[in-house]
Design goal:
The structure holds 3 protein chains of 3 kinds.
Chain A: H1 8-30, E1 46-54, E2 62-71, E3 78-80, E4 92-94, H2 100-131
Antiparallel strand pairs in A: 1-2, 3-4
Chain B: H1 3-14, H2 46-51, H3 54-58, H4 62-70, H5 87-90, H6 98-125, H7 131-164
Helix pairs in contact in B: 4-6, 6-7
Chain C: H1 9-33, E1 43-45, H2 47-59, E2 70-72, H3 88-121
Antiparallel strand pairs in C: 1-2
The chains are: A alpha+beta, B mainly alpha, C mainly alpha.
Chain lengths: ~140, ~170, ~130
């Protein structure tokens, strides 16, 4: 099919990668206090890794993809809360290893990158529209 | 379009220098007639002109037009006068023929149009995102073609002007 | 006769630069897309092309300029912790000016073509 907007593969890949990242951050934030997850233990935050790959159109541009969504296994803080149903025999509750400020910064970065890529697509479309006015 | 019809026109164009020889030195052969001396004026009759059909000029096929013009230089059956000149010297003594110039120009227009087609194909198949190349190629071929059309119009107009000339 | 209509050096330079501007857009898009990728190094228009183009613009023989291509930028040095050296603000500014450059070149090319049309037909469109 016709390919009228330059760099559209690259930018589209970035948009979906950043979208995945924002989804993961949202999940981490939502589960910041989940002490009893599906496997019975406290929630462990997820981390998204990006990887770049050469765009098949051969121009030298590189598109980005999510290489994996891994789990951060560093243990979170344990707090003393004997009244909590998930407390162990010492009254300590294992909290998720989600640090809200880190997650918020990640969310802002991902959001900014997403908007930057939207600006790229807008620019590319304007360039193509201008090219169509040649001679008129 | 009959080549002979067109040659009649061109031999008419050449013949002004033959007017002084009106006193019988016709030298025209009845078949290729068209000289302006009074004796052959009778040859300039409407049925002769009918062989020269302006509408075929209108529906011009550029390559046959060029071919026909290119055939002017050598082909004048029997009208071997000292004033026989080919289109080259009509053009002022330069060593190129008008037919060649015209056919070169038409070839260039053709190659511009082919380039525009190739660029359009590239865009259609998605091989390139450079829309501007296709747009520029299209505009260039349009300009080149427009120039050819205007030249043709001028040639047709001058021919018709010529036909209207009073003898 | 027809080719000489289009052999204005500014017109040819503008056409070549349009290709380069479109290629540069892809390079900048790649940089902005990979701003979060660890180890990514920014890319830009190859130095071969920019140098050859500036040299030939004065010398007048644009046919010897190589086609514009994208390669890693050897001059970008500031790296972050993850090895990525893309500065997103700079990339966005470059992209904005690149887009303006494309518009300008389109106007140059368009102007030349419209002039030819006007000269040939006496009207402003064919």
């Amino acid at each position: 099919m016709m390919n009228l907007i330059s760099g559209v593969n690259v930018t589209a890949s970035a948009l979906s990668a950043e979208q995945v990242r924002m989804d993961v951050v949202a999940e981490n934030i939502a589960n910041a206090y989940t002490t009893h997850g599906t496997d019975g233990t406290a929630y462990k935050r997820k981390v998204v890794s990006f990887e770049s790959m050469l765009d098949p159109t051969g121009t030298g541009a590189q598109s980005v993809k999510v290489s994996q969504i891994s789990t951060d296994s560093t243990p979170g803080p344990a707090i003393y809360d004997p009244g909590n149903p998930d407390a162990n025999k010492d009254g300590m509750v294992q909290m998720p290893n989600v640090n809200l400020s880190t997650e918020m910064v990640d969310l802002m970065t991902a959001s900014r990158a997403y908007e930057a890529n939207l600006a790229v697509i807008r620019n590319a479309r304007q360039m193509a529209a201008k090219a169509l006015t040649i001679g008129h | 379009m009959s080549p002979i019809g067109l040659i009649d026109v061109s031999s008419m164009m050449r013949s002004p220098e033959r007017v002084p020889s009106a006193a019988g030195a016709s030298g025209t052969d009845p078949a290729g007639l068209g000289g302006l001396d009074p004796s052959s004026l009778a040859g300039l009759n409407p049925s002769n002109l009918a062989g020269m059909d302006p509408s075929t000029l209108g529906g011009l096929n550029p390559s046959s037009f060029a071919q026909t013009l290119g055939s002017i230089p050598g082909v004048t059956p029997g009208a071997a006068t000292p004033a026989t000149s080919d289109a080259a010297s009509i053009a002022g003594g330069q060593p190129v023929s008008f037919g060649n110039i015209l056919s070169n120009a038409i070839n260039e227009v053709n190659s511009k149009m082919q380039a525009a087609d190739a660029a359009k194909t590239q865009v259609l198949t998605g091989e390139t995102t450079n829309v501007h190349q296709a747009m520029i190629a299209m505009q260039e071929s349009s300009v080149a073609f427009g120039l050819m059309v205007e030249v043709r119009n001028k040639l047709v107009d001058s021919f018709q002007e010529l036909m209207r000339m009073q003898v | 006769m027809i080719e000489s209509l289009f052999s204005n050096p500014n017109y040819e330079a503008s056409k070549l630069l349009l290709d380069a501007t479109a290629a540069r857009h892809e390079a900048l898009a790649s940089n902005i897309a990979n701003v979060e990728t660890p180890g990514y190094k920014r890319v830009d228009l190859s130095k071969n092309f920019s140098d050859a183009f500036s040299a030939q613009l004065k010398a007048g023989d644009l046919s010897s300029v190589p086609a514009p291509s994208i390669q890693q930028d050897p001059t970008a040095t500031t790296e972050r912790q993850d090895g990525n050296n893309v500065q997103i603000d700079k990339e966005l500014m470059d992209m904005s000016s690149n887009s303006l450059q494309y518009d300008t070149l389109t106007e140059f090319v368009s102007g030349s073509l419209k002039q030819l049309q006007m000269a040939i037909t006496g009207r402003s469109s064919m």
